[in-house]
Write a structure and sequence with these properties.
Largest sheet: 7 strands, antiparallel
Helix content: 40-55%
Shape: elongated
Keywords: Membrane, Transmembrane, Transmembrane helix
CATH class of the largest domain: Alpha Beta
CATH architecture of the largest domain: 2-Layer Sandwich
Structural class: alpha+beta
Number of helices: 12
Distance between the termini: 113 Å
Number of domains: 2
Mean pLDDT: 83
């Protein structure tokens, strides 16, 4: 206990054993190590905790946000103008790293952290990866991949020839006009023979088709395959003997044109039995709903096809009749009878040959 009037050094009595000694007058030496700096007379005293001696760099955060926004705009422009190959190029990746470093510096700069955070968020949302992915998704949805192609790809996409095919051999083959003339002559002779031998009449033929051939570089070549007008009899042909007689008459015409007898695509051994059943109704020709034959000139890429549709041999589920009825509803073609048409290899119109040669010169 403290006894009033006692000396300061003797204030503690027996019951105060273990208590720390009272500091000497004026306190211990060095107890006040840090003192507030002396201000000149009349200077305002800064509030406690003031950062007046640490100037804020808000401008750096604003600059980082502006740089990030400009970078995003550049990404979009590059994607639409230069394509993905430019977007993923070294220059754009280096630019992205530079922008990111600047944004991170702003993020750790006092006074600029708020703006720097916004700039960082913008960079995370829109960067090379996200903009490129968005462009790819857009192309997949619209089917337009122009922005994803390089200039070299776009150049070869317009190649008029066919990859790995010598243009001199392609352009040196029969023209479309020559193929058409040969097809018209052969089909005309076959129709005349069948009309003479069996009294067939013929429907209005289906239009010819020109199917473009891909050039192997992502585009279409100037060449196409030609499918002639498709002729069909108005009369049906039933029974193996009648169908065989029809094919014999056709073979006689084909032989006159220098071809061998027509080869059957429906005979066992040419294809697997299950395939024959699927395509023709049975693996046995005498039970097939469709007979199909061809004769060709291999060197000229010229093939005559003949089909005989006989629905009296339809399968139990009637699928061939149903297919023919559906096709009849769309094309007006008779349900059954003899079908004739020609298919050729790659060809080009004579009117396009000069323009083809001129364009081809750009690729040599």
């Amino acid at each position: 206990m403290v006894i009033p009037g006692e000396a300061t050094s003797n204030r503690y009595v027996a019951s105060s054993d273990g208590a720390p000694p009272v500091p000497p007058p004026g306190g211990y030496r060095g107890a006040q190590r840090s003192r507030a700096p002396q201000l000149p007379p009349g200077a305002p005293v800064p509030p406690r905790g003031s950062t007046a001696d640490k100037p804020k760099r808000t401008w750096m955060g604003i600059a980082a946000l502006i740089v990030a926004a400009v970078y995003v705009i550049v990404l979009v422009i590059v994607l639409n103008v230069g394509g993905s190959h430019t977007l993923y190029g070294f220059n754009m990746l280096a630019l992205q790293i530079a922008v990111l470093v600047f944004v991170l510096v702003a993020l750790f700069t006092p006074g600029a952290r708020g703006w720097g955070s916004a700039a960082l968020a913008l960079c995370l949302v829109a960067n090379v990866a996200t903009v490129g992915a968005a462009g790819a998704l857009t192309s997949a949805y619209t089917g337009n991949y122009e922005n994803l192609k390089s200039d070299d790809q776009k150049f070869w996409e317009k190649y008029p020839g066919i990859k790995d095919e010598e243009p001199v051999y392609l352009i040196g083959g029969p023209s479309y006009e020559e193929y058409k003339a040969d097809a018209d002559e052969l089909l005309g002779q076959v129709r005349n023979r069948l009309t003479t031998d069996f009294g067939f009449s013929w429907t209005e033929p289906a239009d010819e088709m020109k199917r473009p051939i891909r050039n192997g570089y992502g585009g279409e070549s100037w060449f196409f395959t030609y499918t002639s007008e498709k002729w069909m009899t108005n009369e049906a042909v039933h029974g193996v003997s009648d169908k065989t007689a029809v094919m014999n008459s056709i073979n006689s015409v084909v032989n006159d044109f220098g071809y061998d007898d027509m080869y059957s695509l429906t005979e066992p051994g040419y294809r697997d039995d299950k395939v024959l059943e699927q395509l023709y109704g049975s693996a046995e020709p005498t039970e097939q709903a469709i007979w199909e034959f061809y004769a060709d000139d291999y060197d000229a890429n010229f093939t005559l096809y003949v089909q005989i549709v006989d629905l009296s041999m339809d399968t139990e589920d009637g699928r061939f009749r149903k297919d023919r009825e559906d096709w009849n509803a769309r094309s007006g073609e008779p349900l059954e009878g003899v079908i004739l048409y020609v298919v050729t290899g790659p060809t080009i119109s004579e009117d396009d040959e000069d323009a083809f040669d001129k364009l081809l010169a750009e690729y040599e």
